[in-house]
């Protein structure tokens, strides 16, 4: 919703050249929402969906921060200032989202490391030494 509001503000402003980033982010967020809602993430197991969401959040936070600074500092109309302020709010929201998603990724990686071949190798070596 925030991306759509920013998109509308950029359309109404002098900074209309910045409207592409919020539009693409809105469409990507809409796609991921419908993918999770329709259980598409369970059908396509080859793609790690939280990593996709993490990368989307990181890039969105960086892009929103950059275009918000440009919109607030370069343009003087009210719609550009509003889009910049909403962009800063979106930056904070995406930063919180990628922090939460990052914690999910760390948990996943910790679970994956316990299933690694190195863990099985040390157990095999222990069982070989016990049989001697």
Describe the SSE topology:
Elements: H1 2-12, H2 20-37, H3 40-43, H4 49-74, H5 78-114, H6 117-131
Describe this entry's structure for a reader.
- By secondary structure, the chain is mainly α.
- The protein has a domain at 20-111.
- It contains 6 helices and no strands.
- The protein has helices at residues 2-12, 20-37, 40-43, 49-74, 78-114, 117-131.
- Helix 1 runs antiparallel to helix 2 and helix 2 (20-37) runs antiparallel to helix 4.
- The model is unreliable at 116-127 (pLDDT under 50).
Task: Please outline what is shown here.
With 132 residues, the protein is mostly helical.
- The quaternary state of the protein chains shown equals single chain
Measured on Cα atoms, how large is the radius of gyration?
Answer: 22 Å
**Mass-distribution shape:** elongated
Query: Overall pLDDT, averaged?
Result: 81
The helix/strand class is mainly alpha
Fraction in beta strands: under 5%
Q: Helical stretch count?
A: 6
Query: What is the total tally of β strands?
Result: 0
Order of helices and strands: HHHHHH
Membrane topology: Multi-pass membrane protein
GO cellular component, one term: membrane
Organism: Gavia stellata
Protein name: CKLF-like MARVEL transmembrane domain-containing protein 3
């Amino acid at each position: 919703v925030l991306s759509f509001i920013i998109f509308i503000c950029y359309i109404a402003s002098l900074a209309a050249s910045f409207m592409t980033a919020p539009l693409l982010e809105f469409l990507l967020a809409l796609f991921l929402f419908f993918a999770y809602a329709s259980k598409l993430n369970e059908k396509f197991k080859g793609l790690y969906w939280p990593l996709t969401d993490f990368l989307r959040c990181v890039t969105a936070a960086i892009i929103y921060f950059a275009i918000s600074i440009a919109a607030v500092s370069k343009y003087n109309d009210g719609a550009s200032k509003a889009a910049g302020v909403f962009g800063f709010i979106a930056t904070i929201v995406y930063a919180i989202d990628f922090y939460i998603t990052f914690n999910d990724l760390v948990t996943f990686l910790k679970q994956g490391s316990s299933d690694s071949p190195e863990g099985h190798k040390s157990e095999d070596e222990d069982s070989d030494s016990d049989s001697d």
